[in-house]
Design goal:
The protein is built from five helices and nine strands. Strands 6-7-5-9-8 form a five-stranded mixed sheet, covered by helices on one side. By secondary structure, the protein is α+β, with helices and mostly antiparallel strands. The chain has two domains: about 80 residues, no CATH class; about 90 residues. The longest helix has 22 residues. Helix content is about 35%, strand content about 25%. α4 crosses α5. The chain binds zinc ion. Zinc ion binds next to α3. The site of zinc ion (ZN) has 7 residues, from α3.
Length: about 190
Amino acid sequence: MTMRRAKRYTVQSFKEKEQTGNDPYSMRGAPKGVLECPECHAMYYRKRWVLPGASGDGRAAQSSGKKAGKAAQPPQPYLCPACRKLRDRYPEGFVSIYWPNWVTYQTEVLNLIHNEEARAREDNPLARIMNIRTRPDGIDIETTTEKMAQRIGQRLRKAFHGDVQYKWSHKDKLARIDWKGPVKVTM
Ligand SMILES: [Zn+2]
């Protein structure tokens, strides 16, 4: 498949993706059989990435293969799309949090975000937070998927109310979420 490995995020790359339908992070062209990401140890089996230990992570297939004898094959190492995006610094979701008196709330907000990431990863190991940058009045978060950014926005709104805005671009492949914390906190 694609030879563009160390690609950075640019508008051009999104345009290219739209025009050619050639998503450099798709699993088309991946080797057959069970794959294991050497970075995060997620496993790819039956066209799904799953966390190790989750049901259907491919180990069941391996052990039944072992019983059958020759069919057993160890998983092949293959960097998962989330780890590739991390390596390439290629986020598809952005969340900006603005909250006056940010220091007062930062621990609580960060805990909530990390919990949400843990929960999202159970459903989809490719949903990750890539980077968090601190500003005096909040933080900027980059995520591997646009859904992960959306999920954080929803979670913040549910927990603290405030004001959330969702923006999609590049045929919905890129999401920007702005969330403003409430000036008066009623919790
Ligand atoms: Zn990985």
